[in-house]
């Protein structure tokens, strides 16, 4: 086990047409590509982590409360993985990790760092949504902790096309990531 695939926020609320904070068609279009990357990582014995937002109804202290409508609320269907990615998770759940996060970054306040350290993994691959929010903040934290970073350009998306393009440039030019 040398690499970890971080599948970021590929949930109903962020991807489905009627999701609470959906990035829409660009997100839905990633479904097949993300599944094939998950299968490749599982087949090679690498780690797959599904990192998903969790928020709580009426949480006035959370900084996102004043920025976004409620999304990925605890114990709601909006927090389920979307489409075929959900199926891929269910098929492989014994060898995958489902990780709750409460901030944009999958590293912020979670046990992700310790899970990777236990496995001596310093190589992280990023897919999911949104390129310029949760994928970006996860990549910045990975950079600050010295991980080698690969971003799969055809498996990340955003509701903001300009933000998506900017983030892909930032991954490469400022975080030293492989953008493939
Ligand atoms: Zn959120």
Textual characterization of the structure:
Helix 3 runs parallel beside helix 4. Strand 5 (148-157), helix 7 (161-173) and strand 6 form a beta-alpha-beta unit. It is built from seven helices and six strands. Helices cover 34% and strands 21% of the residues. Strands 3-2-1-4-5-6 form a six-stranded parallel sheet, sandwiched between helices. It has helices spanning 12-15, 25-28, 31-43, 83-92, 112-118, 134-144, 161-173, and strands at 3-8, 47-53, 96-101, 123-129, 148-157, 178-179. The protein is α/β, with parallel strands linked by helices and 180 residues long. Zinc ion (ZN) binds at residues 53, 55, 64, 71-72.
Q: What percent of the residues sit in helical stretches (DSSP H or I)?
A: 25-40%
Give me the Rg, rounded.
15 Å
**What portion of residues belong to β-strands?**
15-25%
Low-confidence stretches: none
Q: Key terms for this structure?
A:
single chain; alpha/beta; 7 helices; binds zinc ion
Give a nutshell description of this structure.
Helix content is 34%, strand content 21%. With 180 residues, the protein is α/β, with parallel strands linked by helices. Strands 3-2-1-4-5-6 form a six-stranded parallel β-sheet, sandwiched between helices.
List the helices and strands and how they pair.
Blueprint: E1 3-8, H1 12-15, H2 25-28, H3 31-43, E2 47-53, H4 83-92, E3 96-101, H5 112-118, E4 123-129, H6 134-144, E5 148-157, H7 161-173, E6 178-179
Parallel strand pairs: 1-2, 1-4, 2-3, 4-5, 5-6
Helix pairs in contact: 3-4
The chain binds zinc ion.
């Amino acid at each position: 086990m040398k690499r970890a695939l971080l599948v970021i926020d590929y949930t109903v609320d962020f991807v489905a047409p009627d999701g609470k904070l959906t990035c829409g068609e660009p997100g839905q279009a990633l479904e097949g590509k993300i599944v094939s990357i998950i299968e490749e990582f599982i087949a090679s014995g690498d780690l797959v982590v599904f990192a998903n937002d969790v928020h709580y109804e009426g949480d006035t202290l959370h900084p996102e409360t004043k920025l976004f409508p409620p999304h990925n609320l605890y114990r709601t269907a909006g927090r389920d993985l979307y489409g075929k990615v959900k199926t891929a998770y269910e098929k492989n759940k014994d060898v995958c990790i489902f990780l709750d996060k409460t901030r944009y970054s999958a590293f912020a306040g979670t046990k992700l760092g310790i899970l990777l350290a236990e496995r001596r993994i310093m190589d992280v691959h990023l897919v999911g949504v949104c390129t310029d929010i949760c994928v970006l903040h996860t990549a910045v934290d990975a950079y600050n902790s010295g991980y080698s970073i690969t971003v799969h350009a055809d498996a990340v998306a955003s509701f903001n096309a300009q933000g998506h393009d900017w983030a892909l440039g930032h991954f490469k030019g400022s975080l030293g990531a492989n953008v493939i």
